[in-house]
Structures are given as structure tokens and as C-alpha cells.
Write a structure and sequence with these properties.
The protein has one domain. 61% of the residues lie in helices and 0% in strands. It has helices spanning 7-17, 21-33, 37-60, 73-79, 91-108, 124-135, 140-160, 165-168, 174-188, 193-205, 223-242, 251-264, 281-289, 297-300. Bound molecules: iron/sulfur cluster (SF4). Iron/sulfur cluster is lined by residues 120-121, 165, 170, 173-174, 212-214, 219, 222-223, 226, 271.
């Protein structure tokens, strides 16, 4: 039996069978969907391929999105890789940021992406995983395992809190993606399951309470740049975990905190575009351009 709902369950399974989180994720999926190992891996390979296509599309063929809110930033970030000694971050972080933005830009241009875990938070995991694999010349097998570990963390967040912005704000989309990527990349780097869960805890804590406030209700601003910086956070959390820094609050408790925050977060800050950045001067200008009805002060207050 490979059922788990918490990292506590997952870590126990890893210990019992002396395997990684990725391996438990494979066995869970085989048991849950009655599939052979080869089918589970094939499906994740297909996911990985779509992620790569989405990233390369926006870099090679940048496109402006509706209302000029997105497009063309991924190639700008890629240029930073040629200015290595002048950049404040490392090449892997810069590439991860570029790939995270690229995924969001492909989405904004109506291209195909993988909602991993959701469309709004779809940039962080491919950003981190693909960039790490390229910069450190990791095998596709390792990359696949990283994605499977990320999936296991996503399932734990879905079971313990939510992956829906309408229910929990941006902490449930980009925040969840940071936790997923942090664990995935930590295992890819040879970290233990405990270090992977610890990286997730630190990553998610940094995004707790972040609201969903997209301009005009479109998944573009602030979504894409939140993914960009989320990718750098996931890599930083992984580094910290592998260097021995421990989250004082374990991951399962961070997930419980996310659920608690979601329950008390105003509906105006949960995907309705009635608060936060959506009602700034710029947000209201976009709303007007889109032909949406003007907001009354009572809608916002
Ligand atoms: S702001 Fe809202 S729509 Fe945008 S990524 Fe965050 S949760 Fe998704």
C-alpha cells in the first residue's frame, strides 16, 4: 500500500521501503490508477516534453499577449546567461527564471502548457527542473524523478489545503508550485526525502498569505513574474536545505497554515480581481480596456 496524504505518511513510506519520494510517487500512481510502471513513466515523459516545448516556444518565438500584459521577457532573461559575471544570481537561477516566464508567456499567448499544478502556477516547476537539468547536465531519468517528487508534494497540498486560487489565493498556486519544485530539485540533487520536505516547507512559508489579484482576471499580471521569482525561491530553499538549514515548522504544519489562511482570506483576494493589484490605477485601466463594468467603491472596500 502506497497511499499518503501528508509528508509524515510519505516519509514513513520512503523509510520503510528505503526509496525516494519519486519512487513512492510512481508506486502510488501504479496502485491508484492501476497502471504499469512503464505507463506511469510514459505519461510523465509526455508531460516533460510539453513543458520543454512551452518553454522553447516563448524564447524562440516571443509574442505579445492580450492588452500587452506579457510577452518578450523570457528572451531578455536568457540574455543574462551571456553576461554571467555581471549578474547577481547564478546561471541556474537566471535560466530557471527565464523558463518560468517563458511558460507563462506561452500560456498568455494561448499556447499549450502543462497546468502543474495549475495554469497560473505553471512556470515554477518546469523553470526549476528544466534549468537545473540543463545547467548541471542531469539525465532525463533524474528530471523525470524530480517531476514525480514534485507531484507527490502537490498531492499533499491538495489533500491538506488546496491548489485552487479561488479557495486559497496565490499561495495555493505559485506557493504550491514553489514547494513542489523545491522538493523535486532537492531530490534531483541527491537530497534525502527529509531534505526535500524541508525545502518545501521553507519554500511554501515564503509564499504564505499571498493573494490572487490578477489584472482584469487574466492569468498574466502579476502571475508570470510571481512564477519568475518563485523559481528563484525554490532553488534557494533547496540550497538552504542541502546546506543543513531546517524549517522550524514542518511541511505538514505549513500546509495546515495555508488552509487556515485560505479560510480567513477575503473573497476579494481570491481570483475575483476585486482587490490588491487588480484594483490599482493600472489594474483599473486594464479593466476598462477590457470593457469590464467599472467597480463601485463598495466592490473594493
Ligand atoms: S495571481 Fe491568481 S491567477 Fe495569478 S498566478 Fe497567482 S493565483 Fe494564479
Amino acid at each position: 500500500m502506497y497511499q499518503f496524504r501528508t509528508t509524515n505518511d510519505l516519509l514513513k513510506l520512503c523509510k520503510k521501503h528505503n526509496v525516494s519520494m519519486a519512487e513512492i510517487a510512481i508506486r502510488y500512481e501504479m496502485e491508484h490508477s492501476n497502471k504499469h510502471r512503464a505507463e506511469v513513466l510514459k505519461k510523465m515523459r509526455k508531460t516533460m516534453k510539453t513543458m520543454k516545448e512551452a518553454v522553447h516556444e516563448a524564447i524562440k518565438n516571443p509574442q505579445d499577449s492580450a492588452f500587452h500584459m506579457a510577452g518578450g521577457d523570457a528572451p531578455k532573461l536568457m540574455k543574462g546567461l551571456k553576461k554571467k559575471n555581471k549578474m547577481a544570481t547564478s546561471p541556474v537561477v537566471l535560466r530557471a527564471m527565464a523558463y518560468a516566464v517563458a511558460t507563462g508567456e506561452t500560456n498568455s499567448a494561448m499556447g499549450r502548457i502543462v497546468a502543474f499544478p495549475t495554469a497560473g502556477g505553471a512556470g515554477v516547476v518546469p523553470g526549476v527542473m528544466l534549468a537545473f537539468a540543463e545547467e548541471f547536465k542531469t539525465t532525463n531519468k533524474k528530471l523525470l524523478e524530480g517531476l514525480l517528487t514534485a507531484s507527490a508534494i502537490g498531492k499533499i497540498i491538495a489533500d491538506g489545503a488546496t491548489l485552487s486560487a479561488a479557495a486559497g489565493g496565490c499561495q495555493a498556486e505559485v506557493g504550491a508550485a514553489i514547494a513542489m519544485a523545491a522538493a523535486g530539485v532537492t531530490e534531483m540533487r541527491g537530497g534525502t526525502p527529509e531534505q526535500a520536505a524541508n525545502a518545501s516547507a521553507m519554500g511554501l512559508k515564503s509564499f504564505l498569505g499571498v493573494v490572487c489579484d490578477p489584472l482584469g482576471g487574466l492569468v498574466a499580471v502579476p502571475c508570470i513574474k510571481r512564477n519568475m521569482l518563485g523559481a528563484s525561491t525554490a532553488l534557494a530553499a533547496s540550497d538552504a536545505s542541502l546546506l543543513g538549514v531546517e524549517s522550524f515548522i514542518p511541511f505538514d504544519e505549513v500546509v495546515a497554515a495555508m488552509k487556515n489562511i485560505a479560510a480567513i482570506m477575503s473573497p476579494k483576494l481570491r481570483e475575483t480581481a476585486l482587490g490588491g493589484l487588480a484594483v490599482t490605477k493600472t489594474g483599473l485601466r486594464i479593466r476598462k480596456k477590457m470593457g469590464l463594468p467599472p467597480l463601485k467603491p463598495t466592490d473594493i472596500d
